[in-house]
Design goal:
This protein is α+β, with helices and mostly antiparallel strands. It is 18% helix and 42% strand. The structure holds ligand LBFN2T5F.
């Protein structure tokens, strides 16, 4: 089986082209592929297939909003094998992969996700690097909640970016004190507020249009970036200042992205890197599926 390896601000993925949707992406197959010692190592998997093919194969039970059968669909799995609705960094890498492999010839096209259609613009690309903007859709603030992480309690805002987030602005945090937090243990969450779990972002307040953020991802653990998380962080940072719209530069451990939020929705602009391609031994994966 062919694969490629890529990342968006160091949120890394194994990309699996599967045009006929033949792969059995069991939880154990995904988690062993993503394991950094037993497998290739990644935060998640991006299966590449057309939406209609995935529906006909029973991977999708319905066509998500705005997604057409002929659209390419990012079938995203977290490193622990669970399915998530959306992955903002993943969409950039996915779009880059489609352009490099000539599966898509346009610079503007739609990528399907379980959260719905996501319009992408590939501003520039070569075999290894790309600059991509993703229209991230609606950003819905769901109210206040809180978490305990790194030995502290944080109040934040529940935010739906297609997937669930708790984004917590701490006005006292600096880049250095944020960097010193220990994110090794999972955060606590209010299970009634977040019945399906959530990704948790802790961030500094807006300063000169920029914030710094760290994230603990549902189904993965701490990652060096989370695209949907940067959109949630931008929305929380604006809301903390009493704003609903604006542009925010979000710094993560793996780099920096730009988020713009207006009354129509959010966009996320950032890099994609494709660094390797190769072949997975089918016998190895089958024995672990
Ligand atoms: N890293 C992703 C988000 C992936 C899904 C997330 N862990 C979840 O379970 O919702 C991103 O870049 O958005």
């Amino acid at each position: 089986m062919e694969f490629a390896k890529g990342h968006g601000t160091e949120n890394d993925f194994v990309v699996l082209p599967d045009p006929a949707a033949e792969l059995e992406l069991t939880r154990s197959a995904v988690s062993v592929l993503c394991d950094r010692r037993q497998g290739l190592g990644a935060d998640g998997i991006l299966r590449v297939a057309r939406a209609g093919v995935l529906r006909d194969a029973g991977v999708l039970d319905r066509m998500p909003s705005g997604v057409e059968p002929e659209d390419w669909f990012m079938d995203y799995r977290n490193g622990d094998g669970t399915i998530a609705e959306m992955c903002g960094n993943g969409v950039r890498v996915f779009a880059h992969y489609l352009r490099v492999h000539d599966l898509e010839q346009r610079d503007q096209f739609v990528v399907g996700s379980r959260a719905g259609a996501r319009a992408v613009t590939v501003h520039s690309f070569d075999d290894t690097d790309a600059d991509v903007t993703v229209a991230m859709g609606d950003v819905t603030l769901m109210g206040s909640s809180s978490t305990t992480i790194a030995g502290g309690s944080y109040d934040g805002v529940g935010i739906d970016v297609g997937n669930p987030h708790l984004a917590c602005v701490d006005g006292a945090l600096t880049r250095a004190s944020l960097g010193a937090l220990d994110f090794s243990a999972p955060p606590t969450l209010d299970a009634e507020f977040f019945p399906h779990g959530a990704n948790v972002e802790i961030l500094t307040r807006l300063d000169d249009g920029a914030v710094e953020m760290r994230v603990f991802e549902r189904g993965v653990g701490e990652t060096r970036s989370c695209g949907t998380g940067t959109v949630a962080a931008a929305a929380a940072a604006l809301s903390y200042e009493g704003l609903e719209t604006g542009e925010v530069s979000v710094g993560v451990l793996g780099g920096r992205v730009r988020v713009a939020i207006d009354h129509v929705g959010a966009t996320l602009r950032g890099p994609s890197v494709l660094l390797a391609r190769g072949e997975i031994d089918d016998r190895w994966l089958k024995a672990r599926s």
